[in-house]
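quick one, 377 residues, struct below
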Amino acid sequence: MGLPVDYWEVTNEPAHPHHTEKNPGGYFKHSWQDFLAFWDVNYDAVRAADPDAKIVGPSFGGAADGDMLTSTGAFLSHCQDRGQKLDVLSWHINCIYKGPNGQYWDDVDCVHREIEAVHKLVEGKFPDVGVQEYHLDEWSYHIPYAGMGSQVVHFYYMDLAGLDRAAKTQPPKYLNGILLSPQTPRAAYWAWVEYAKQDGGVRLVTETNDRCIVGLASRHDEAKIVRTLVARAKKMAAADPPERAPHWKWGDRVPPKPPVKVRIDFEGLPLSGEAEVTILRLPPGYGPLYEDELDSLTTTTMMDVVEGKLTVELTDVVEDNAFSIAIGPEGTREKEKAEAARWATAKPEAATTKGERELHRSRARRPWSSIGQSCGG
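---
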């Protein structure tokens, strides 16, 4: 077709060293030696056809849980022995896994710990393999693992641990847990719209004393606005998951944790005196949530900023909740609503600059959305 291909992934969830001819494994039920032979043939073919292409592998169904860290090391050792350069190390995390010390990790811990363990393995033992990027090609298979708060918390830990790319796995009807249909957004869609508003700001360091509750924050100095997306993940693993249940159903059997109060201490705010604090509380459900419902979920109050500091408290925060908090000068919310309305009703020919015309066309692809101009990406 003439389309360029930048990344070549050889196969999906191949067999690892614990699979044999008598006990085949992997997505296609083959042996470890079969996979290595298949890998070598494809590696040589891609390198011969395009020396600059990025080759992705091994795409195991795990990388550091249980015995998989040993398997990942065996694959990297094979590449090193043959002088192969692995541009991208990839693997999948789809459910709950048994850790190397026999303990069970819930999905939030698993993602963070696996990425760190893989980094340590590559940098400590296989630097010559030349891994440039780390990809999590699948994560969060079952629908309870794709709740809005869990999505945000996973993103936080993936970014913190140095992951380059990730693709969330979901049954097609859920459209990756963000939309119910091309015209029907879920609450999770609006959480990522709010995060997109942070584009162009200075990323802020956030700390938490609860690994299931995180914040993604940015500061816009010119507009004197600080935005924060706070989310609580669902805790997936029971202390002793039922061995007889399929592992992808363990999360269903863990009772929900009670609501909590979350205190957020802001420091270094770019304004002083009275500030407008707008909080959008997004519900954790999987049903539709339309734009005209957002006002009823939003509160705006005036609060005092003292020496650049301000404290906001969120009550009754349940699992998979998300909150968008915007702190700025008085009138910030009304100004943004007016800007959103302008983009929702503008016609392409009314746009005065090329940038505005391009931005309007990006809005036209979302007919049910009238988001402010900072959400174009």
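Residues 277 and 327 are 5 Å apart (CA to CA).
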